[in-house]
Design brief:
Elements (H helix, E strand, L loop, with lengths): L6 H6 L2 H23 L8 H14 L1 H33 L1 H14 L8 H8 L3 H25 L3 H9 L4 H43 L4 H10 L3 H32 L6
Length: 266
């Protein structure tokens, strides 16, 4: 007879609950350390940060800044995914394409996206064009590398099945390669997202200083200049919260609908 799990065991098996507990413990440590320092200009407490967070939301400033960042991020991310897809499709279609992808990734993947900011300013000026440029660089290579690696790991048997069914070109990629390599593709998408998000915030600090406007990066920099340190931490908290939502809700939903449903290991 199967042993019935206790209430504690059932709750412990819930991933979301374990993560919530971790977040609560971190918040308590944050609050305790802030109270221990007792210096708001150095390290505000979690309570003060939450107050600044909701005050900025109520005033509409923080949502506007966050949305400005997300809009630019989506444009840059979409362009990066498109470019990575084209490079990967070229790589699997010919040896020359493979050599091209390997050469480009060897050249540009180690290059920090933030290092391209001076060139972005010269080529595109102040504004979203420069931000999109550095985002495309930060996204493309991680996705292209993981996607190409996933395609190469597809079993020869599965590839032969696709060929025997007369699949070729885009149909072969869509029906055989992408489903089989999707765990690697999804990993690349996650890494690309993380690179893009942190690059955007760093870039906005620079562009915000230059143009007097921007998204969350500018909000953080502006709050620092005003010595409103709780708002600085509120901006950082917003960056973290958006990251948690994307990782644990959006990407997790994609993973459940694909990798988990198909019985694959990511």
């Amino acid at each position: 007879m199967e042993k019935q799990l206790s209430t504690f065991d059932r709750l412990y098996n819930e991933t979301w609950l374990r993560k919530v507990i971790i977040l609560v413990v971190l918040a308590m440590i944050w609050e305790a350390y802030g109270r221990y320092l007792n210096n708001e200009l150095l390290f505000p407490t979690f309570v003060d940060t939450i107050k600044a967070f909701f005050h900025s939301i109520a005033s509409g400033v923080l949502p506007a800044r966050a949305w400005a960042s997300i809009k630019v991020l989506l444009i840059g991310y979409a362009c990066g995914v498109t470019l990575a897809s084209l490079l990967t499709a070229l790589a699997i279609s010919s040896r020359l394409g493979t050599d091209l992808l390997e050469t480009l990734t060897s050249m540009f993947n180690p290059l920090p996206a933030i290092a391209l900011l001076p060139l972005a300013l010269i080529w595109f000026g102040l504004g979203n064009g420069s931000l999109v440029f550095v985002l495309v660089h930060s996204v493309t290579w991680a996705i292209a590398l993981n996607t190409h690696s996933g395609f190469l790991s597809v079993s020869r048997t599965l590839k032969m099945v696709g060929r025997n069914y007369g699949l070729g070109g885009f149909r072969y990629i869509a029906k055989i390669l992408i489903p089989a390599a999707f765990p690697s593709i999804l990993t690349g998408l996650k890494i690309g997202w993380a690179f893009a998000w942190r690059t955007l915030i760093a870039a906005e600090l620079v562009f915000g200083v230059s143009s007097g406007s921007g998204g969350l990066g500018w909000y953080i920099f502006e709050s620092k200049n005003n010595l409103d340190i709780p708002s600085v931490f509120a901006g950082l908290l917003t960056v973290i919260l958006i990251g948690l939502v994307v990782e644990n809700i959006i990407f997790r939903a994609i993973e459940s609908a694909t990798v988990d449903r198909w019985g694959m290991q990511s």
